[in-house]
Amino acid sequence: MVNRIESIVDAIGRLNSVHSPDSLAYQIRNPLLLVSFAKPGRHDVNEDGLRVFGSMLAGYKAGCFDVSLKIKGLSRAGLRPADCLENLLGCYKIVGKVARDNVVAFIRRALKDESVSVHTPLSYFLE
User: Fold this and answer.
1) Angle (nearest 5°) at CA 117 between 88 and 115
2) Residues 79, 44: contact at Cβ < 8 Å?
3) What is residue 45's three-state secondary structure?
4) Is 119 exposed, middle or buried (0-12, 13-18, 19+ CB in 10 A)?
5) Which residue of 70, 75, 89, 102 is surrounded by the most CB atoms within 10 Å?
6) Where are the domains of the chain?
7) For residue 84, which phi and psi values (nearest 5 degrees)?
8) 3-class DSSP state for residue 50?
């Protein structure tokens, strides 16, 4: 069974072309294009403040951790489990309809659940 949080990370990573060697996500090994909010020097960052990871696995784990925190309502993003997927996607600057639809379509296929939509509550991904 596919982990629901990983399905979100995979979907956003695909949208960011994480497996294309020419993409920014691939080059900095950061599938979600996570921004560092830590004190300067704590994380490796590029000139745009995006975290740079030493491996794809490290970037993937950080992405899963970040999504998990947001879904549980434990991040500074202010999300709660009752919020919808659309709100979570906004945290990763995925705001256009086409981009959101691509993420939702990927998650539906990954989880084999056609009921997933941008209005799905984040609590669904905790089960």
Assistant:
1) 135
2) no
3) strand
4) exposed
5) 70
6) 4-121
7) -100, 165
8) strand
